[in-house]
Amino acid sequence: MTSLAVGSVLVVCMVLAGWGPMRRFAPRDLGWLGRFGWSAAVGAALTGQVQILLGLLGVAATAGVPIGLAVVSTGWALSQRAAHRASLVEVEPLPVWVRAAFALVVVASTSVSAGLPFTSDGTKFWAPRAREMVEHAAIEMPTLHDEARVGFHRRYPLLVPAVMAPAFEHSPQDAMVGPKLTLQIFTIALLAFLTDRLGRTGPRGRALLVALLAMPTWSLVKVRESAVAAGYVDAVIALWLVLIVDAVLARDRSGRTLASMAFFAAAAWATKFEGIVTVAVLLIAWLLSRPRDFRAIVTVLVGAAVLAVPTVIIQQSSIADAPIGDIGLLANLDVLAGRSVPVVAGFVGRLLDITAFGFLPLLLVAWLPAAWFARVRPSDTAFARRLSIWLVLGVLGWFASIYLVTTMNVTRHIYTSGHRLLLQWLPALTLTAAVIVEHLGRPASED
Amino acid sequence: MDAVSAPLIVGRIACAVLGAACAWGAVDVVERTTLPAPAALVEWERSHPDYFALDAAQEAVFASKRAEKRHQDVLWLLVGLASGGLLTAVAPRRLVQTLGGLVSGVLVTGAVTTGAWALARSVDAQHQRAQHDGWTLGDDTLASFANAHTGTLRDLRVMIPDDHAIITIGQRDIELNLVSWALHPRAIYPIFTRPPMGTSIEMMAAELGKTDFASGHAGRWVLDLGRMGAFSSYVGEMVAQID
């Protein structure tokens, strides 16, 4: 049980590490659950980003980082207690059944995540890389730089391994539970934030929350095993997208909000190979929905690029992986024609992937088109409608693009990974849909 | 019956019919173990093979997995729609309105049903695995994923010092992943070729001894993943020290 204790302590440290930034930067209209989710997300991201920066400077990952960040952050949070309380917008408490549903899903999900072993990509690179980060600085890790050594996805970014590494440092050799607990904090943060946001909407927003919490993907053992490591790395991307979309929908363009959006975008960049593309899709959708936010969008992009410099340097210094796509395939009409039907069929199949997503995609398909064309108080939701349309088109375009140029068997890859890619976007689309179907106007509404 | 309640009653009847039809369909589906793909899709895939086609053995395994997954999804879809349709048909009017109408009522109650089912199956699966070390919060998780290879891996740990390198021979992904994970911090150098039939581990060690591959460590070992995958009777048949 040593590893379980270590993981628990580190999770607390990461939540505390985000506490100070939360009081300064988080939206003011969150309840305690939303503030907890925001703190956990920022604390984990800060831990990972600082470990990566230290790795660039030749320092191996250590538990001193989350502990140190927790101490500094707690001091900062306490120093701004009065100002923070005064700035909060009073919100209604969440209904008891919403809190109970959240607690049930979190317990079930964490139980699966902590109790099952790493599988598939988890054993191949997420966990091994985390373990290696404890012994070597990221800039000189053997499996990234020694071509003859066993190594998978050498240019994959390191935020997730960097978050798990301290738990490996203080766990016995064959223990996994502590590291998996630290990975699970991202999923808990995602569920907490969405529960807070959707739980305070009207009945249809809460119905979306119910469908989201009821997704088998959070707890079903078979799904979790097929999806990497009994700890969803793709939920981490989903978390960053949700936090950015929430800020975009708030239409608050203050420096405080833009800074946090840039931070989340950089975190997405440092999380998975496709992280920067998901952020780009989101920023383009934002630009197309509201061109007058151009300066804010550029600010977020530049800020993210600056914060992602350590990630990019470490990626570029390591051995290149084999290319996963071939743009030349776009010129091969036989390939395009042959792949068109399997790609469409594959994604229809993924939307009907009841064992992963339950009925949430069907609910979105039933509600969104009706809400897009509804003429009830359109002024409140015009921006959210435009954003959702461009997001949906962007996501479909991105998926279609990668599956038309991939150098893997397209049918098999959609089967093995399509639901993980879709998971990255579903929560953000759900949050946008909730704003539309509830005709919600956020406090900073301008349209 | 007034003009407002008439459409609702018709809708409730439609929900009940949908629920009953889906329940009937679910009973039919549950008796099968797999579901074939639509004929048109199969025909299209046959006439337009992917640029990166699978070999026959991979294709057979993949087709079987897809059929099983399709069966599961269709079954869950029918069960969700059946329960959603039947529950919505008898739900209080206020609840139906709260859920956004009959259509969304069916989908939301279907979501709750499938979610509850998933939760129950998850608890059951975790409980079952905990009986066989497949689910644990303890510090020794090797057996939970190494299964029958656990003893071999523990023997290899005793045999090979931490600062030595291991050259693995063969194309067995599962065994390579296990070795990479369980024998950390020993450096692992894979060679993805199958040795000719009849090549002993000593012969492999002798050949590798003539090269400087994976040099720079305190010692080098060679491990035949093929023999490991075949569960050789003792570790000495699958591993040998090079220098």
Secondary structure elements and pairings:
The complex is a heterodimer of chains A (about 450) and B (about 240).
Chain A: H1 2-17, H2 19-25, H3 32-56, H4 64-79, H5 81-87, H6 96-115, H7 120-135, H8 142-145, H9 159-169, H10 177-199, H11 203-213, H12 221-226, H13 234-250, H14 255-269, H15 275-289, H16 294-307, H17 309-317, H18 333-351, H19 354-357, H20 360-373, H21 378-405, H22 410-437
Chain B: H1 5-30, H2 39-47, H3 56-90, H4 93-98, H5 102-131, H6 142-146, H7 150-159, E1 165-169, H8 173-182, E2 187-191, H9 201-209, E3 220-224, H10 225-229, E4 239-241
Parallel strand pairs in B: 1-2, 1-3
Antiparallel strand pairs in B: 3-4
Helix pairs in contact in B: 1-3, 3-5
Q: How many beta-strand elements of chain B?
A: 4
Q: How many discrete domains of chain B? A: 2
Helical percentage of chain A: over 70%
Order of helix and strand elements from N to C terminus of chain A: HHHHHHHHHHHHHHHHHHHHHH
Structural class per helix/strand content of chain B? alpha/beta
Features:
heterodimer, A: 447 residues, mainly alpha, 22 helices, 0% strand, disordered C terminus, B: 243 residues, alpha/beta, four-stranded mixed sheet, 10 helices, 4 strands, 7% strand, elongated
Any overview of this molecule?
The complex is a heterodimer of chains A (447) and B (243). With 447 residues, chain A is mainly alpha-helical. Chain A has one domain. Helix content of chain A is 73%, strand content 0%. Chain A is built from 22 helices and no strands. Chain A has helices at residues 2-17, 19-25, 32-56, 64-79, 81-87, 96-115, 120-135, 142-145, 159-169, 177-199, 203-213, 221-226, 234-250, 255-269, 275-289, 294-307, 309-317, 333-351, 354-357, 360-373, 378-405, 410-437. In chain A, α20 (360-373) crosses α22 (410-437). The longest helix of chain A is centred in the last third of the chain and has 28 residues, at 378-405. The radius of gyration of chain A is 21 Å and the shape is globular. Chain B is of the alpha/beta class. Chain B folds into two domains: 5-131, no CATH class; 147-241. Helix content of chain B is 60%, strand content 7%. Chain B contains ten helices and four strands. In chain B, α8 (173-182) links the parallel β1 and β2. The mean pLDDT of chain B is 89.
